[in-house]
Amino acid sequence: MGSSVETLEFQAETRQLLRLVIHSIYSNKDIFLRELISNASDALDKLRLESLTDSDLQADTSDPHIALEVDRDARTLTVRDNGIGMSRDEIVELIGTIAKSGTAGLLEKLKDAQDAAAAQSLIGQFGVGFYSAFMVADKVTLRTRRAGTDAGTQWESDGEGTYELQAVDGLPVGTSVTLHIKPADTEDGLADYLAESKIRQIVKQYSDFIRWPIRMATERTDAEGATTRETDTLNSMKALWARPRNEITEDEYTEFYRQISHDWQPPAKTVHMRAEGTFEYEALLFIPSQAPFDLFSREAKRGVQLYVKRVFIMDDCEALMPNYLRFVKGVVDTHDLSLNISREILQHDRQIRAVRRRLVKKVLGAVKEVRTGDAEAYATFWSQFGSVLKEGLLEDTDNTEALLDLVSAASTHDPDKTTTLREYVERMKDGQEAIYYLTGETRATVENSPHLEAFRAKGYEVLILTDPVDEVWVEQVPAFDGHRFQSIAKGQVDLDEPADGGEEADAEKSRREQDFAALLAWLTTSLAGQVKQVRLSSRLTTSAACLVGDAHDMTPTLEKMYRAMGQQVPPVKRILELNPAHPLVAALRTAHEADATDPALAEIAELVHGSALLAEGGELPDPARFTRLLTDRLTRAL
Questions:
Q1: Could you report the per-residue pLDDT of 58-70, keeping only the tens digit for each?
Q2: Strand blocks (E) in 243-379
Q3: Can you name the residues that pair with 115 across neighbouring β-strands?
Q4: In terms of C-beta density within 10 A (0-12 exposed, 13-18 middle, 19 or more buried), how is residue 503 classed?
Q5: DSSP state of 187
Q6: Rounded to two decimals, what is the model's pTM?
Q7: If 0-12 CB within 10 Å is exposed, 13-18 middle and 19+ buried, where does residue 276 land?
Q8: More exposed terminus of the chain, fewer Cβ within 10 Å: N or C?
């Protein structure tokens, strides 16, 4: 033994997490062994990879394996690997404190999880499956030594408030986790986790595809009563992606997906492909059915696992999958790359770029299959990943048409369903050239916008776009199926029917503009600090006024987004449009004609502008002044 025992306290959030894991999270306690074997497999991957890049590591990689050891007398189950191991500091960081961003968020999500399956998925995503050991053990002892070091460390805890650390001499490279198993209890769901049959069943069910051998020493008694001891390999170690598709069951696909993704839900779609010719590879990709917690985190890892001739090279190979498909999980196994290829070389490798293009088309094709095959399933998928897929409209010009074909959006056509762009185009009115849309922070804000009034009155469908990325892609994508995208909150809108008295309508419009010319000019001057122009509107039917932008102006929501990201953008003055048929606007015109110098008119102009700003969900520059002016006007009216 080495130094004296050091007792440390778990981080407060770690203690909360332990209580959740032990007492309420996992309904299927068998998961603990899957999690420990998965950790051991990762350790073996890391050692093999580090030994390739560090010639001085002096690690024995001749027989990488995972060993399961049972001692029924001592009631212990040990999971042992000869992988990379851990240093003392790594133990404290990875186990003692869960020093990961988002731990508080994990706890909140776990408490809010509606069922055990959702909670299990969250545990796996946050990478804290090690703690599942405490569901079946009343004490856990971890002993480890990192490759390239001489110092070994022992970590031990009962899963309550503290853990003990101690330096230990003479440990082999790798890690052993010894669980002091609780007695079997059917009421608590505790099986006999020391029974050989139970261990075999768990390994076969959850870890059969692990690439390293999982071994266990067993005893056999022959007919004469003689006992022999032998070591069995419990898993097949067959690369699932290399097997013919017709030989693989959906359950096998699902279990493999769970192993690589730590997602407890089955995938929404599986893509299994093989390419032969000048550059051979196999790929097994999965589209999840639910978004991971870190989908929008900058620190989140993305990409798929890369193998070369069945040899693991790296996790999260970004070169194989674009950022907007970062939710895709899976494996790509190439036959022609070097085993020590670097991430930097991958980014510029011509063959890898060709593989990436093929994978992207396959994934988008699989998403389209979901859309055409099951409307309800696609609605669920789009609610989880739609905002990420639309990032591709900004990044991937090669697949713009395929991505537009997948876009699903709320619209004024049906308040309970979303619509595709293809469905929108099929419903367009005769003579309609543009695809009309309106962006905003929430659906309720958009649906209550005065900009929609004339479109609703004349039966024009409008897309309701509320994802932040919508503010950008609609400006950059020129058209869909020959129809340009047009914001109903920008530029001039004229929905007047040209037929049956069109010339008369034009004459009436001209007369209105002349009648209101003086008021519009005065308002443009009076509100010069807030707006660039005041004009009559053809998009309003019931509201007195609304604010619109010029055709190429930045929207207020986009302005707000840029400022939230710390970017300084100049404020954009907008256009105030008035409804000439509204009693307030008519009364304002009459009052202006009677006495253009009346100071009350300027206050009413401010109130009209402020009301238009509030109607679209905007923020008043001076709420206190607006409230005072409104109160004064109401008092005089009474």
A1: 888 899 999 999 9
A2: 269-275, 281-287, 304-308, 311-317, 329-334
A3: none
A4: exposed
A5: T
A6: 0.69
A7: exposed
A8: C
